Structures are given as structure tokens and as C-alpha cells.
Amino acid sequence: MQELLAVLPDWLGVYLLIVNVAAFAVYGADKLRARQGRWRVPEKTLFLLAIVGGGVGALLGMWCFHHKTRHWYFRYGIPAILVVQLALAGWLWLR
Predict the structure, then answer these.
(1) pLDDT, tens digit, for every residue of 67-85?
(2) Is the C-alpha dihedral spanning 73, 75, 79, 19 positive or negative?
(3) What's the CA gap between 49 and 94, in Å, rounded?
């Protein structure tokens, strides 16, 4: 693990923390807005947050808030994005 940390830029950990907390918060806010019948966060935005590194936060947001769990493209798409991100991290670590 030390090798992976040595290869990655110092700011990457901070970036991933911020984007995952943001993804989690946006999923929670969107669920609240859905219950209140207010303006919603576009689904493209929810996916974009996962794609840019917030896969863990998006998945936790789905589970904790029970949000978007009935949509097959979220139920399978968000975990698939996370698997790709983890595979990329593993590849970087092993090379």
C-alpha cells in the first residue's frame, strides 16, 4: 500500500474524500427533495459524481437513504463504476 501512496499525488486523497462526501450528501438531499415534491437533482449529475471518483459515497448514499435503488441502471451502474475505480486503483498499485 505504501507504493500506491507514493505514486499518487498528495492532493488525490483530499479530492476523493471531498467528492465522496459530496456524492453522499447530494444523494441524501435529492431523496429529501423527492419526498417534499421539490426540484430534483438530475440523474446525470448523480452518475457524474460517481464517475469522477465518488463511487463509494454514491453507493453509501443509495443504501443509507434508500434512494434510486429501484432503478436498475443505478442498482447495477453505480456498483459497476465503483468496481472499475477499484480495479484501476489495484492496477496502479500492482504496476
Answers:
(1) 998 999 999 999 999 999 9
(2) positive
(3) 26
Question: Whats the size of the chain, residue-wise?
Answer: 95
Residue 19 grid coordinates: 467528492
CB 27 within 8 A of CB 46: yes
User: Domain segments of the chain: what residues?
Assistant: 11-94
- Region at 71 (left for phi over 0; alpha for psi -120 to 50; beta for the rest): beta
pTM reported for the whole predicted model: 0.86
Given a contact cutoff of 8 angstroms between Cβ atoms, the answer to whether 16 and 10 are in contact is no
Contacts of 89 (CB under 8 A, 6+ apart): 4
